[in-house]
């Protein structure tokens, strides 16, 4: 049993009907909590701020790079639209020109437009951090799912372990997932991240690395306002989740702050060994406070009468519809 203090939830359900409290009594029902739950890790505020500061310093130049790319993309789209307008006007004004001459003029126009597009100066070289990070809820989810899939194993009767995936495993042994939990609305959008990170940590076959610190995947939820800070550092409108691999520059600085941060784990997914037997979450039984009729027999009879009356009303409505159709057709 859990030693936690009981919490009373007094919110009224939207589907609940108005009932008289005089005919009902308070009862308690036992509900078994889900044992396969993974909680968000508890990270102190000072560690959150330190990690955020290091990540922002690692993202130097990323915002300007993304802004330059967006500016160049908009310029290319404007020139492409201008080229299409000129070609459409030219084709309408030269309908009497033979087909060979028209195709030649169109080819010259396209060549000149392509030359104009390629004359746009390219943006500066992409920062190296972009090769070691993933941004966005969908992209981070795909990355974690791929990691968990590559770690998947099958135990055969000969007690040998064979991988069900053809991949040789990830190239890096550790990574950091930053989730702006306080800024995401609704929170269910990132509610799956603890379970995915726990799956990677529990089923992964990691090898120790002296340069990147402990292996595994860290999950750090951030306080409110972190999303705006990351969005400004990356040059995007919103940044809810970001994943940084251990191969990124300055990752050792992050690992130094994360040494005392617990990594989410799912013990039921780990391969049991003699040194590490399988462990499950202790059983937690919750008491649900609700109400029940004082006279159950009378309540059942009243409910049966209400169902019969509702059935009779539906039947009478079905009989009235053909009569209304007949009268309207006769008029």
Set out the fold topology.
Blueprint: E1 24-32, H1 45-58, H2 62-93, H3 99-118, E2 133-135, H4 137-150, E3 153-155, E4 161-163, E5 174-179, H5 193-203, E6 216-221, H6 226-234, E7 241-245, H7 251-257, E8 285-293, H8 296-330
Pfam families: RNase_P_pop3 (PF08228)
Biased composition (Basic and acidic residues): 81-93, 292-311
Biased composition (Polar residues): 1-15
Structural account:
This protein is α+β, with helices and mostly antiparallel strands. It folds into three domains: 45-60 and 128-265, Ribosomal protein L30/S12 (60s Ribosomal Protein L30, Chain: A); 68-118; 297-331. Helix content is 43%, strand content 13%. It has a four-stranded mixed beta sheet, with helices on one face. A two-stranded antiparallel ribbon has the order 1-8. It has a two-stranded antiparallel ribbon with strand order 3-4. A hairpin with a 5-residue loop joins β3 and β4. α4 (137-150) packs parallel to α5 (193-203). The chain is flat and about 75 Å long. It starts with 23 loop residues before the first strand and ends with a helix.
Secondary-structure-derived class: alpha+beta
For the biggest β-sheet, the strand order reads 2-7-5-6
Poorly predicted tracts of residues: 108-123, 159-171, 205-213
How many DSSP helices?
Answer: 8
Write down the secondary-structure element order: EHHHEHEEEHEHEHEH
- Radius of gyration, whole Å: 32 Å
The CATH H-level homologous superfamily of the largest domain: Ribosomal protein L30/S12
What CATH architecture label of the largest domain applies?
Answer: 2-Layer Sandwich
